[in-house]
Amino acid sequence: MDTLRESFRYGTSPLTSPSLSPPYNAYLFGSHISKSLSPLLHGILFRSLGLSWKFHLVQTTDKGKFLDKVNSSETIGVSITMPNKVTFGLLLEDFTDAAQVIGAVNTSFVRLDSTGKRRYIGTNTDCVGIREVIVQYDSTAVATSKGKPAMVVGGGGAARSAVYALWKWFSPSEIYIVNRLKSEVDDIVKHFTAAMPGIQLRYVADIAIAQSILAPSIIVSTIPDYPPSEPGEILCWQICEKIFGKVEKGLLVDMCYMPSPGTRLVKAANKAGWRTILGTEVLVRVCVAQQVLWTERLPNQQGVSEAIAAITQPQSAAKL
């Protein structure tokens, strides 16, 4: 509940009814979200808490439409996905430390200032989802990963959330970064060296480096599940295979779940003897982290289990 406790640094609760009975609304703003799993998951989680709140999709990049919904007294929170994470995030009134360090907003929640005015706070719950899915899978992970290397595959916004989560909560000796473009890795290294002083990041640029380094205890992959075709993509795949082939085995968290959570990377890791966590489970934990901020309640574990079960069945491709 540290996420909720820290949220009150930005103001007091907007929830005035002990029963939380008002029909509050939450929204997802983004492009190409018609098949999003968020309404399903949030609906299950709301009902598990006895709430009649609703979750809606708003497929738009229009800042005016975003502000219209956010400024409604019936809006309790919003989720923001691509391509709005930066542009819509800038419209909010304050940001949590996580959002500032990561440089991207995927969630907004409401708090009241000293005069009772609503304030819209931007945060990043992707990093919380990564943390929670790992510790729920292995309660010893924080202790056993301390002082050992970790690894992130990818170079986009989700990769930055993974770097933040691993360094902040799992205390690795260093974080390897595997990515098809060196320029993206350079940007990540530059950004986090300034934002998280003392962080140790290493670009794994080729097979020789992959061969020489220690096996990471945790890997978080953030890349799409497409067959590698470009030279950089092929090299990334070969590096991952080399890492999986090391004697020491660890845990792979694959954030990708399209078109299926059983990605090529998950299958390769399983075959090599690694433990794996699917992207759908990360997605549920991200939604739970959002709901903690909106409902100000601990997650209902039965509801979490129901949400996970609901998306382990074959689903159409979806995007959070």
Please tell me about this protein's structure:
This protein is α/β, with parallel strands linked by helices and 320 residues long. The chain has two domains: 2-123 and 286-312, Rossmann fold (3-Layer(aba) Sandwich), CATH 3.40.50.10860; 128-277, Rossmann fold. The chain is 40% helix and 17% strand. The chain contains 13 helices and twelve strands. The protein has helices at 2-7, 38-48, 63-70, 97-102, 126-137, 141-144, 157-169, 182-195, 207-212, 231-244, 264-271, 279-295, 301-310, and strands at residues 25-30, 54-59, 75-80, 94-95, 107-112, 118-123, 150-153, 175-178, 201-203, 218-221, 251-254, 275-277. The chain has a six-stranded mixed sheet with strand order 2-1-3-5-6-4, with helices on both faces. A six-stranded parallel sheet has the order 9-8-7-10-11-12, with helices on both faces. Helix 2 crosses helix 12 (279-295) and helix 5 crosses helix 7 (157-169). The radius of gyration is 19 Å and the shape is globular. The protein starts with a helix and ends in a 10-residue tail after the last helix. Mean pLDDT is 93; it is low at 314-320.
